[in-house]
Specification:
CATH architecture: Roll
Order of helices and strands: EHEEHHEEEE
Helix content: 25-40%
CATH class: Alpha Beta
Strand order of the largest sheet: 2-1-7-4-5
Largest sheet: 5 strands, mixed
Shape: globular
CATH superfamily: Beta-grasp domain
Number of domains: 1
CATH topology: Ubiquitin-like (UB roll)
């Protein structure tokens, strides 16, 4: 039973990897514990979003990923 955590954009650089596996179920606190201190600090920022199973969460602290889900960590989008 696993959840895939996908790091996108600058979060990929901080994590030093594209993705990682976590044991399901995975909640917000479990996610913060899994990703390391630097990435966790970024995830706490309001500008960073979290998507689970293809849906961006309105409240990322309500994360509850189940077996087979993909959790994408979405850095802020920059315009230009």
């Amino acid at each position: 039973m696993a959840v895939t955590i996908v790091f996108l954009g600058p979060l990929r650089e901080l994590a030093g990897r594209d993705e990682m596996e976590a044991v399901a179920p995975l909640d917000w606190n479990g996610l913060l514990d899994m990703v390391g201190a630097e990435v966790a600090d970024q995830l706490r920022e309001a500008r960073v979003n979290v998507a689970c199973a293809g849906r961006v969460l309105a409240d990322k602290t309500e994360l509850m990923a189940r077996d087979g889900d993909e959790v994408a960590l979405l850095p802020p989008v920059s315009g230009g």
